[in-house]
Amino acid sequence: MSIPDHREYRALGYLIDGTPFFVRALREWDRDAVLELFERSSQRSRYFRYFETKRTLSDAELDYYTRLDFFRHVALAAEAPDEEGIIAVGRYIEVQPPVEPRRAEVAFLVRDDFQGRGVATQLLKHLIRIARDNGIQQFEAEMLPSNTKMVEVFDHSGYELKRSREPDSLRVVFPIHDERIPF
What we know:
By secondary structure, the chain is of the alpha+beta class. 27% of the residues lie in helices and 27% in strands. The chain has helices at residues 31-40, 43-50, 59-66, 119-133, 148-155; strands at residues 10-14, 20-25, 73-79, 88-94, 103-110, 138-143, 162-165, 170-175. It starts with 9 loop residues before the first strand and ends in an 8-residue tail after the last strand. The mean pLDDT is 91.
């Protein structure tokens, strides 16, 4: 069995109200779209994502976020009908040095006007599908406890979460190998 080329990943996602949106692999030529998503995000959303007050993304950060191997570092973009640009990005990055079982950190940036509408939940499901193909066995995420929308994404994922409280954050770790969890 051959592993699909996830650099060509394409799928449909659905908002909570049933509105479809397009999910696709983020590519190197999406640099401007990633920067635009960042710039259209509120300071609060940026703080929730980066744990700091971040005013811009450097060229090095844009390179890192868009030059992906689609094995250890995968990112998916969400695009909605009748919307300009990307409405969200979800990504996973394998923990280095590799640990057993293989684990990746997952993170999202969702445009403010699409938060709470199911985009991150759908991106998580697609990232899990790719991660399974790539032999990743667990996801982890670190978030601020006040980021209730992201906490809800993981709480409602259907996976058994192991939680730990860091000094200023909440960390969840969960196995993604359970094929019974529906997509």
